[in-house]
């Protein structure tokens, strides 16, 4: 019975949006790492991992998970945060990447950040609006911890790039 | 419960918290909006990293404390941060110079910490290094831009290096509690990082046409709790609310 319920809870968790990128849910983001039933204490443990250490959305995500599950009659939920293995943009599904692009956010390149970055090697990022790779990085740090600010040299639009981590 | 290597955890956590707090002072005062956002993001990363360490200390000590107790209810002499993070921000050149030096050390520190025998610190290092890579790149870009920019930006950067260089040495030293952690295979030997540190900063400074002052007497003591007057002022601002209204919650 617990197993059936687990499948259901995984489905329910898809209803929890990422507060900063509401087009994606916490499953698509790869934030939820595990779901465990603690028989001794009769509690569900939802294991999450932060995208960035200082991501201010983590507290909100934790509260949203408990709230959404409670509304669906899943009580006794505990949210645990783990750092290892560290979150990577490689965990984002292709579907999630396409959703990002359709809202004007350039999705992260596959193959998480490499050492070339240390010495200032910058990858070609395609503009999410016109697909041109004639883009320049305006700032490594953008509207949220996980994004950088770019500008397209062809359509001239500024855009967010979900940077690799 | 007595926690083993608590002082070692505190050295890392306090260094990150104090630098995060310092950088936060630029919020709303950055020279350009992108820089305002950049430094606030970097500050958030440090504060987040410090928080996870304090939480782990709270868990291991098991005294019913939370991460906030360590941040808000300890006085300056109990802080174990390196001196370089408590010195004042100065102009943007000085802030960036510190960011560059700090990120260069911190990146390689984390690279070594990934091999720690302590599984929590291992995970902490694997997580944090991804963020610090971006901090390093950001500060390196600015060193090159200011060094090769106008006469004024070049002068300010060189002045900044002259002014703060005496605080760089402490990062590449080992305090007594760091030595203990190194002996157990938990801590990182900071002295061994010096060679890599020197090689990277020298190469970047050369490209930026600036130089680190030679033969500087290096300050130390922060990691043993001997701080400059500046730390007291940061703590006074950061801790005011908890001291004036104990146990108040956000």
What's the gist of this structure?
The complex is a heterodimer of chains A (165) and B (250). By secondary structure, chain A is an alpha/beta fold.
Main traits of this protein?
heterodimer; A: 165 residues; GMP Synthetase, Chain A, domain 3; 2 domains; four-stranded mixed sheet; elongated; B: 250 residues; mainly alpha; Ferritin; 9 helices
Q: How many individual helices of chain A?
A: 3
For the sheet with most strands of chain B, the description reads: none
Strand tally of chain A: 7
CATH architectural type of chain B: Up-down Bundle
The fraction of residues assigned to DSSP E strands of chain B is: under 5%
C-alpha termini separation of chain B: 28 Å
Under CATH, the homologous superfamily of the largest domain in chain A reads Fe-S cluster assembly (FSCA)
Strand order of the largest sheet of chain A: 4-7-6-5
User: How much of the residues of chain A is beta strand, in percent?
Assistant: 15-25%
CATH class of the largest domain in chain A: Alpha Beta
Give the class of chain A from helix and strand content and strand pairing. alpha/beta
Low-confidence stretches of chain B: none
Q: Which architecture of the largest domain in chain A per CATH?
A: 2-Layer Sandwich
Task: Please describe what this structure looks like.
The complex is a heterodimer of chains A (165) and B (250). Chain A has 165 residues and is of the alpha/beta class. Chain A folds into 2 domains: 2-81, GMP Synthetase, Chain A, domain 3 (2-Layer Sandwich); 91-162, no CATH class. In chain A, 22% of the residues lie in helices and 22% in strands. In chain A, strands 4-7-6-5 form a 4-stranded mixed beta sheet. The longest helix of chain A has 15 residues, at 57-71. Chain B has one domain (6-244): Ferritin, core subunit, four-helix bundle (Ferritin), CATH 1.20.1260. Chain B has helices at 6-24, 33-61, 67-72, 92-113, 119-147, 151-164, 176-183, 194-208, 229-244. Chain B is globular, with a radius of gyration of 18 Å. The chains are: A alpha/beta (165), B mainly alpha (250).
């Amino acid at each position: 019975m617990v197993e059936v319920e687990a499948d259901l809870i995984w489905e329910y968790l898809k209803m929890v949006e990422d507060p900063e990128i509401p087009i994606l849910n916490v499953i698509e983001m790869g934030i939820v790492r595990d779901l465990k039933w603690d028989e001794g204490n009769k509690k569900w443990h939802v294991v999450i991992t932060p995208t960035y250490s200082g991501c201010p959305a983590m507290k909100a995500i934790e509260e949203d998970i408990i709230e959404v599950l409670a509304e669906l009659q899943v009580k006794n939920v505990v949210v645990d945060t783990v750092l290892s293995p560290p979150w990577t943009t490689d965990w984002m599904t292709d579907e999630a990447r396409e959703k990002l692009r359709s809202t004007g956010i350039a999705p992260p390149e596959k193959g998480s950040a490499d050492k070339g970055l240390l010495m200032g090697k910058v990858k070609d990022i395609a503009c999410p609006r016109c697909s041109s790779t004639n883009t320049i990085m305006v700032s490594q740090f953008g509207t949220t911890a996980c994004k950088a600010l770019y500008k397209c040299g062809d359509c001239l639009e500024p855009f967010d790039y979900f940077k690799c981590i | 419960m007595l926690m083993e290597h608590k002082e070692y955890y505190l050295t890392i956590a306090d260094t990150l918290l104090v630098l995060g707090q310092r950088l936060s002072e630029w919020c709303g005062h950055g020279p350009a909006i992108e820089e305002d956002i950049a430094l606030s993001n970097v500050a958030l990363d440090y504060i987040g990293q410090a928080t996870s360490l304090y939480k782990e200390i709270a868990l291991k000590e098991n005294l019913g404390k939370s991460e906030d107790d360590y941040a808000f209810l300890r006085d300056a002499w109990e802080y174990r941060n390196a001196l370089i993070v408590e010195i004042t921000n100065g102009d943007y050149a000085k802030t960036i110079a510190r960011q560059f030096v700090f990120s260069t050390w911190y990146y390689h520190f984390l690279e070594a910490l990934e091999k720690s025998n302590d599984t929590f610190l291992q995970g902490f290092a694997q997580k944090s290094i991804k963020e610090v890579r971006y901090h390093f790149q950001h500060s390196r870009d600015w060193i090159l831009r200011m060094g090769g920019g106008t006469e004024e930006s070049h002068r300010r950067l060189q002045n900044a290096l002259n002014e703060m260089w005496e605080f760089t040495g402490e990062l590449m030293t080992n305090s007594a509690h760091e030595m203990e952690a190194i002996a157990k295979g938990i801590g990182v030997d900071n002295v061994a990082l010096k060679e890599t540190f020197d090689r990277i900063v020298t190469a970047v400074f050369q490209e930026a046409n600036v130089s680190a002052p030679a033969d500087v007497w290096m300050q130390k003591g922060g990691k043993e709790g001997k701080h400059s007057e500046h730390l007291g002022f940061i703590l006074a601002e950061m801790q005011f609310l908890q001291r004036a209204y104990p146990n108040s919650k956000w």
